[in-house]
From TrEMBL:
It holds the Pfam family EF-hand_13. This is Serine/threonine-protein phosphatase 2A regulatory subunit B'' subunit gamma. Signal peptide: none annotated. It is found in: Cytoplasm; Nucleus. InterPro entries: EF-hand-dom_pair (IPR011992), EF-hand_13 (IPR041534), EF_Hand_1_Ca_BS (IPR018247), PPP2R3C (IPR039865). It comes from Lepisosteus oculatus. Residues 183-259 form the PP2A regulatory subunit B'' EF-hand domain. Its main location: cytoplasm. The keyword Repeat applies. One of its GO terms (molecular function) is metal ion binding. The keyword Cell cycle does not apply.
């Protein structure tokens, strides 16, 4: 036997002996050996080092100061104010925006499209170099690609880009402005916070110059309710600043800065003086006993005075009242729901009233319960009542719910017919309009034809 073979056999015997010894080890000995190996590798690979331990996880939660911790509260307020000031200084001011426009105009790339100046990507990068550090965030390939449409030369509109920058600057300015009223510093505004913001905004809106100071509190209440009705559907009493910025309400409110705003725009804008006076004037006219509150009988004259008693009963059962009477704030929610029946938040309000059994859906019983009141009103007006079976079938055909026997809020929203369905069930005038829709359309067409001929 050669020497190499003897060594090979020796190694084989050693391995076999080691294996046999391992088999003879008790369960406890095996566990101890595994633990020893685990500890060895855990330490070697660095997982057990102090610099990677739980003690060095960055802190992500900071307790808010309690009411009696005055010093901590003051410190927090001051630090937030400094932070917001710094953020404000990072925004482009008017002079810097003018300079940006001058640079964009100087580096435009011919030919123009009509009167619209264009710029290619090379010119875009040249402007980026000269515009300064504050503009750097706007001059990215992503922004350029977003604004690139169908130009054959691969250019973007200078005006579109500048409007994009202006919009971003405005959003950041508004975010900072709203954050100054965020007393809690948590990214949301409570009702009192938004009231303070709008109250201090009034003097900066020329369209509100004619408002009496005694009306300011009612105006603020009217304006704030729209934000909270649509942006706080769960009625938590607070709305995110991000949600305020994302919706169009703030645009409508700040539109009142325009001194030449048309009469039509004012009438369609909930925040305008004529609109606020209209809503408050309606409330005063309904309040016959002048006690500042509305009873069910007084509210029954709302609009065309054709809301059913059954529906009004549900309003006073579900909505906040004081000794059975409704205050102005609750009235505003009522008006916002009925004037915006296509909106999900308004449908949610009405659906809650229609869902008499609180089941989360409307069945044939609920539909019949409300439509009976419509039939009774038709009899009072000398009209032949329509069959509920026919109306029920039409409603289910319009909504096309997932369950053929139940209509959920989501079904109503998805169908796009929620406003029509609610009008059929709660308002005689709404039902009459639906029943005579073909005649009304024909009359409108005839009127249009007559106007065309003249």
């Amino acid at each position: 036997m050669s020497r190499d073979k003897a060594i090979e056999w020796k190694e084989i015997l050693k391995r076999r002996l080691a294996t046999s010894k391992k088999d003879e080890m008790t369960e406890q000995e095996k566990k101890d050996e595994e633990m020893t190996l685990f500890t060895k590798h855990y330490t070697e690979w660095g997982w057990g080092r102090r610099d990677r331990s739980y003690r060095n996880i960055p802190r992500f939660y900071y307790r808010l100061p309690a009411e009696d911790e005055v010093l901590l509260q003051k410190l927090r307020e001051e630090s937030r104010a400094v932070f917001l000031q710094r953020k404000s200084r990072e925004l482009l001011d008017n002079e810097e925006l003018q300079n940006l426009w001058f640079l964009l105009d100087k580096h435009q790339t011919p030919p123009s499209i009509g009167e619209e100046a264009m710029i290619n990507y090379n010119g875009f990068l040249k402007v980026a170099e000269k515009a300064g550090a504050k503009c750097k965030q706007f001059f990215t390939a992503r922004v350029y690609a977003k604004l690139l449409h169908s130009d054959p030369y691969g250019r973007i509109s200078i005006m579109q880009f500048f409007n994009y920058v202006m919009r971003k600057v405005w959003l950041h300015q508004t975010r900072i402005g709203l954050s100054l009223y965020d007393v809690a510093g948590q990214g949301y505004l409570r009702e009192s916070d938004l009231e303070n913001y709008i109250l201090e905004l009034i003097p900066t809106l020329p369209q509100l110059d004619g408002l009496e100071k005694s009306f300011y509190s009612f105006y603020v209440c009217t304006a704030v309710r729209k934000f909270f009705f649509f942006l706080d559907p769960l009625r938590t009493g607070k709305i995110k600043i991000q949600d305020i910025l994302a919706c169009s309400f703030l645009d409508d409110l700040l539109e009142l800065r325009d001194e030449e705003l048309s009469k039509e725009s004012q009438e369609s804008n909930w925040f305008s003086a004529p609109s606020a006076l209209r809503v408050y004037g309606q409330y005063l006219n309904l309040d016959k006993d002048h006690n500042g509150m509305l009873s069910k009988e007084e509210l029954s004259r709302y609009g065309t005075g054709t809301l059913t008693n059954v529906f009004l009963d549900r309003v006073y059962q579900e909505c906040l009242t004081y000794d059975g009477e409704m205050d102005y704030k609750t009235y505003l929610d009522f008006v916002l729901a009925l004037e915006n029946r296509k909106e999900p938040a308004a449908l949610q309000y009405i659906f809650k009233l229609l869902d008499i059994e609180n089941k989360g859906y409307l069945n044939v019983f609920a539909l019949n319960y409300f439509f009976r009141a419509i039939q009774e009103q038709m009899k009072l007006h000398g009209q032949e009542p329509v069959s509920f079976q026919d109306v029920k079938d039409e409603i289910f055909d319009m909504v096309k719910p997932k369950d053929p026997y139940k209509i959920t809020l989501q079904d109503l929203v998805n169908s796009g017919q929620g406003d029509t369905v609610s009008s059929i069930l709660i308002d005689l005038n709404g039902f009459w309009t639906y029943e005579n829709r073909e005649v009304l359309v024909a009359n409108d067409n005839d009127s249009s034809a007559d106007l065309d001929e003249t």
